[in-house]
Amino acid sequence: MMHYVIIGGSIAGISAAKEIRRVEAGAKITVVSKEKTKPYYRPMIPFLIEKDEIDITFVDDPAKEFGIKNIFDKVACIDVSLKEVRFPSGTKLGYDKLLIATGSGPIIPDIPGLVGDDVFPLRTMQNALEIKSAAKGKGSAVVMGGGFVGTKAAIALKHLGLKVTIIEKMEQMLPQRVDRRGSGIISDAMKAAGIEIIVNDSISEIIRDSGAVKSVRLSSGGSREADMVIIAVGAKPNVEVFKDSGIKFNNGILITEFLQTNMPDIYAAGDVVEYVDLVTGLPAVSALWTNAEEMGRFAGNNMTGGNIKYSGFLSVMNATDIFNIPVISAGVIEPEGKGYEIFVRDNIDSYRKLVFKGESLVGAVFIGDVPNAGIYANLIKNRIPLGSLKEKAIKGVLVYIDFVKNAPVQTLMS
Amino acid sequence: MGCRSCEIECAVEHSKEKTLFSAVLQSPPPMKRLFVESTDDIRMPIICRHCEDAPCLRACISGCLYLDENRFVRRKKERCIGCWTCMMACPFGVITRDKEKHIAVKCDRCHKLDVPACVNACPTGALVLADIDDMTKEKRQRLILAEAKGGA
């Protein structure tokens, strides 16, 4: 009987396990996870900070649902020649096929005063619960980083009544996630809710008094009072334990279109890999839940002998809601270089931007109103040339039946 | 023909008292879950496909969407956080936003009814409820060809 071992118990690992089980009813599947919990919806962790009664764990336990054996431990290293996973205690676990789905971890910048109490990353359920408990009785928080994690952490802490300041190094909030105009709309909403936003700046030192965080000093020279600091400056693939394994990685683990690494019978999926962005064609690390789910499924299938090609992901494929403003963005949102056409519709309560390259839609931003956003996102992801429908897309009246009507009869017959 | 009877009946079925009169007066008004779309020459209701491998369900980050015992893609409403990831994932554009309740809204295939409200309401037979085993590929292809000829 084949033994499938998956390192990493979050969505890439679980969706791979699920796919393996779907194809091979009798397979032995072991998931190794360093987080000792039932799998949970990682994008939901900011809600844990502000809400008391919220369950973010999977409704059904995949271990029971799909007959998975769990090992809750860290991996020390893997031996690719003996096909073994080793644990810190010295225990070994043999595999026939291995999936690396170790995800990504927080980037922790080297700042004086950072190490110690009152400073937290936000990547795990545990982090969120620690932030929640630390926030009790505290008056102010500084969030370092204005990406989605920083934004969500700031909103949660604001809801708890803290005075919140976000410090973003780039010139806008949510850099690379929404365009400048979109970022402006979102920043305005956050400022209106009482969150201070400082851009083009960073923390140069965290000032402590008897161990407790008191304030942060800014690179620009100013300072902000702070009883706690959240570090949200991005994530990096968790590749450390594979350093001496012979598995090739750059920023993330390098994979083929079948999600195989350079080592036999070892696959990788999710945030830990570096692969091609579908619209830019450049190597990228995704760090997105939906992409990890998809990669896990493809990897799982190929591990069981399937032969399905993974064409790549969109590094920007985000949906969220910020103070009741829906936000969806996908693909190239702030194009640089020639050959792009940009169409913007900027109304009082909604903003829409479409980016074309020739006949293809390559990027979209929807803020305030998001109907049919999925049609546009799928056009970008599947790189479908629009032809005569481009005008309808620009007018914002593109609907699903446009494709039914224009599809060749052969396509509909399949 | 684009009479939108299906849309009306859908909204009524998903209203509090399930009658047209009370639905019209309900505030905020009940929401329809299918959409009659039109181009210059054709009109067609677009309905949730309850995809076997549903992109919305796979994308859901809160554990709200699930496949029920009849293989309908449904919501555990209390788990929806209004993140709109499902709207981004659905290629048919049939998931909408309930602005009042701040949750996503989609077709539940009227799971309590044998025949969904939209089908019941359709006066022309454009919407029918058919079992996939009876609606064979050959039959579907015949219908498409007939439609293609008619349109040309």
Secondary-structure map with pairings?
The complex is a heterodimer of chains A (414) and B (152).
Chain A: E1 3-7, H1 11-23, E2 28-33, H2 45-50, H3 62-65, E3 69-72, E4 77-79, E5 84-86, E6 92-94, E7 97-100, E8 104-106, E9 119-121, H4 125-135, E10 140-144, H5 148-159, E11 163-167, H6 180-192, E12 196-198, E13 203-209, E14 212-218, E15 223-225, E16 228-231, E17 235-237, E18 253-254, E19 266-268, E20 273-276, E21 283-284, H7 289-303, E22 317-322, E23 325-331, E24 340-346, E25 351-357, E26 360-367, H8 373-381, H9 390-395, H10 400-406, H11 409-413
Parallel strand pairs in A: 1-2, 1-7, 2-3, 7-19, 9-16, 10-11, 10-16, 11-12, 18-20
Antiparallel strand pairs in A: 4-5, 5-6, 8-17, 13-14, 14-15, 20-21, 22-23, 23-26, 24-25, 25-26
Helix pairs in contact in A: 1-7
Chain B: H1 5-13, H2 20-25, E1 35-38, E2 43-46, H3 55-59, E3 65-67, E4 73-75, H4 85-89, E5 96-98, E6 103-105, H5 117-121, H6 137-151
Antiparallel strand pairs in B: 1-2, 3-4, 5-6
Structural class category of chain B: alpha+beta
Low-confidence stretches of chain A: none
Q: What Rg of chain A do the Cα atoms give?
A: 23 Å
Strand order of the largest sheet of chain A: 3-2-1-7-19
Helicity level of chain A, as a percent range?
A: 10-25%
The helical percent of chain B reads 25-40%
The poorly predicted ranges of chain B are none
Question: Globular, elongated, flat, extended or rod-shaped: what is the shape of chain B?
Answer: globular
| Percent of residues in β-strands of chain B | 5-15%
Give the mean pLDDT of chain A: 95
Task: List the total number of helices of chain A.
Answer: 11
Class based on secondary structure composition and strand pairing of chain A: alpha/beta
Order of helices and strands of chain B: HHEEHEEHEEHH
Strand arrangement within the widest β-sheet of chain B reads 1-2
Number of helices of chain B: 6
